[in-house]
Amino acid sequence: MGKSKKELIKEYKENPPPMGVYQIRNLVNDKILVGTSTNLPGVFNREKFQLNLGGHPNKGLQADWNETGGDSFDFEILDELKPTENPGYDYKEDLAFLEEIWLEKLQPYGERGYNKEKHTADEKLQRIMQNRLAKP
């Protein structure tokens, strides 16, 4: 007979899914999308589901998927983050740092990829100041 719900939850907590940085690579034009997740198998399923339905939020990736088909893409783990002993640890900062490293290394922007360049805090402040000065 199958495991109880309580046993399944305990097993899940003791064996968390792999987390880390991933990329989706277009094998035709070599463009990539870099992202992070606390559940890599889950994010791969979600990304494929959105792409197959035609509703992925990244329009460039979606357009290339529609044009070349799903077989033209590879889903890869770039870096895996090992869980800590602390069950309440928040991995968001660690994942964001790893993502920054991979974005800097791979530069998946423009003709090289599907990511949008992130603005630094200084650039964001500068834009806010410009917007405030421009308003009457």
How does this structure look, described?
This protein is α+β, with helices and mostly antiparallel strands and 136 residues long. The protein has one domain: GIY-YIG endonuclease, CATH 3.40.1440. 46% of the residues lie in helices and 17% in strands. The protein contains five helices and three strands, in the order αββααβαα. It has helices at residues 5-14, 40-53, 59-68, 92-106, 121-134, and strands at residues 19-26, 32-37, 73-81. It has a three-stranded antiparallel β-sheet with strand order 2-1-3. It is globular. The mean pLDDT is 91.
Summarize the structure.
The protein has five helices and three strands, in the order H-E-E-H-H-E-H-H. It has 136 residues and is α+β, with helices and mostly antiparallel strands. It has one domain (5-134): GIY-YIG endonuclease (3-Layer(aba) Sandwich), CATH 3.40.1440.
